[in-house]
Amino acid sequence: MRLWTVTLFAAGLLTAFNSTGAAGAEPPKPDAASLRKIRQLYQLACQQRARNHVRESIDTCTRILAIDPRNSAALSLRGRDEVMLDLCPQGLADCKQALKYESGDMSIYVGAAEAYMCLRRAADAADILTLGMKTVPPKQVDDEIYRMRGETYELLGKHDLAVADLTKAQKIKPEKPDNWSARSNIYFAMGEYDKAVADVTNAIKIAPGNLRLYGARAQIYRKMGKIDLAKRDEVKAKTGDLDF
Predict the structure, then answer these.
(1) What is residue 22's DSSP assignment?
(2) Does pTM surpass 0.90?
């Protein structure tokens, strides 16, 4: 299962405290004291998640939802935590519920996409990311979002779409090695080894201490029949001796 690790929760935090939700009978809105308590609990949940105390974070989000059942930030965070524990259906249900109350926060779409990937529904993951990219303010659609969708397209075998998304990611943040290495992986899958080597080499220039990149380039060199270059990179990947 591919799990993305972007941190986007804060974007929808304030709107989540004032969400109106779908039509029908609405529970009363939290009063000022309840809102303060919700903010404190949400900060605690984020801290717990950052320390990898995922079950505690879920419990804290559940406490928020006992106060405000329509709190999209808590629903989304709990959903993403549930996915981390492979509670995929529960995570998807929470994220979809969060989207009913707040459709303008890209982090919720990301959470739903993670849940779909957890359920091995890559096409649905790509679709929900696309919906989010069309719905939220453009400033929320950063290079990581394009890279996520590009990697999802890769899993679906839609290499041209994957390359297009990762090229957009590179244009937004050319200084990120992951944007180059991700596109290199796709070119490798397409058999376009020259382009794959060029991209991973750019990633190495940005992050020369990332030994994984040398192993990736070695694999490409072997496919190209450049065994001496492959062996040099394999030594670098194994020993960390970058002067070899």
Answers:
(1) S
(2) no
Q: What is the pLDDT of residues 152-195, one digit of tens each?
A: 999 999 999 999 999 999 999 999 999 999 999 999 999 999 99
The two structure tokens encoding residue 71: 């709190």
Count the residues in the chain: 244
* 196 domain-assigned: no
Q: Is residue 210 part of a domain?
A: no
Residue 133 inside a domain? The answer is: yes
Nearest to 54 by CA among 34, 36, 76, 80: 80
- The H or E element that residue 83 is part of is helix 72-84
Q: Give the residue with greater pLDDT, 243 vs 116.
A: 116
Q: Is 193 part of any domain?
A: no
Q: How many domains does the chain have?
A: 1
Closest by CA to 162, choosing from 144, 182, 181, 177, is 182
Per-residue tokens: 104: 């303008």
Residue 15 and residue 104 in contact, taking contact as beta carbons nearer than 8 Å: yes
Q: How far apart are CA 101 and CA 113, in angstroms?
A: 17
Whether residue 44 contacts residue 74, with contact meaning beta carbons closer than 8 Å, is answered with: no
Range of the structural domain that residue 12 is part of: 1-20+30-141
Q: What is the CATH number of the domain that holds 108?
A: 1.25.40.10
Q: What percent of the chain has pLDDT over 70?
A: 89
Q: What totals of helices (H) and strands (E) does the chain contain, helices first?
A: 13, 0
pLDDT at 14 over 60: no
